[in-house]
Amino acid sequence: MSVAGNIVILTGAGISAESGIATFRGPGGLWEGHRVEDVCTPEALARDPALVHRFYDLRRAALDTVAPNAAHDALARLDAAWPGELLIVTQNVDDLHERAGARRMLHMHGELRSALCAACGTRRPWRGALPPATVCPACDAPALRPDIVFFGEMPYEMERIESALSRADLFVSIGTSGAVYPAAGFVRAAAAAGAATLELNLERSAGSTWSGETRLGPAGVLVPTWVDSLLPE
Ligand code: APR
Q: How confident is the model at residue 178, as a pLDDT?
């Protein structure tokens, strides 16, 4: 790839695992202890708002106890130094990419440290607990909810993502099982647009089939090595 090519990076829960945040699938994963249907669907929110709000309150509170790891730091370094286009598309709802210093990024599945008004659609930074029926400061409706894209809901910024994929020279997926669409289809969209594709993951994933190259290992090791290979000494 030329020194100023366009890069799209997709990250998943695996990039935050070494920071101590549980992934979803696999041993000890979040979906081991909870059924998706109970905590991550619009129906679950309607059926038991207290359970859903509490699930995300606990995950939001846990962010106070974790920090970015070497993989987040390396991506932030690449973001700051890369002369071409670069976009980090994270499926994660933690804020470790931002805390590491990443700027050219977006959260396609929402963010723990944000609240969404189900009535007016306003999103706002949020820390601490978010009880059900919290009043929205913008529209006064008792309708604030976790700003998490539930299964069955449309991810954020899909046009921006699709546009970046159409111009990508290199697509890199890091720490994702490739189990959830539309993110799982990004590697094929990038390849169809002529991009080279690379997967950095602890184990082979559903996306490995479609990746031009797969490197297996912890993100904390693979990502800094990959970033060093792109940036001059
Ligand atoms: N380094 C690199 N990869 C790792 C590490 C690590 N230290 N630890 C785990 N992994 C890999 C696992 O092998 C797995 O392939 O990260 C991947 C995590 O997969 P999932 O737990 O399925 O997480 P993710 O792919 O982000 O899930 C996608 O599903 O539940 C929804 O909205 C949720 O955004 C999430 C989406």
A: 95
